[in-house]
Design brief:
Shape: rod-shaped
Structural class: mainly alpha
Strand content: under 5%
Number of strands: 0
Organism: Klebsiella pneumoniae
Protein name: Putative transport
Radius of gyration: 24 Å
Largest sheet: none
Number of helices: 3
Helix content: over 70%
Order of helices and strands: HHH
Distance between the termini: 66 Å
Keywords: Membrane, Transmembrane, Transmembrane helix
Length: about 60
């Protein structure tokens, strides 16, 4: 993390404690969103396969008549 702050300071941007905290929170938020989206794709696909395989257990049977 210190390397990132040093690189930003090298660009001529003054790094205050508040800006440093905002950068850290931004990285955490970005990472959380990326992990959230990846898990949604993986988990939803797994649940979809299981739901389709067991749909006869929880969907009403319209063909019984």
């Amino acid at each position: 993390m210190q390397e990132l702050i040093s690189q930003i300071a090298a660009l001529g941007i003054e790094i205050t404690p508040t800006r440093s905290l905002m950068i850290i929170f931004g990285i955490i938020l970005f990472t959380a969103v990326v992990v959230h989206l990846i898990l949604h794709k993986v988990v939803l696909r797994a649940f979809e396969k299981r739901a389709l395989a067991s749909s006869h257990l929880w969907l009403p049977n319209h063909h019984a008549e």
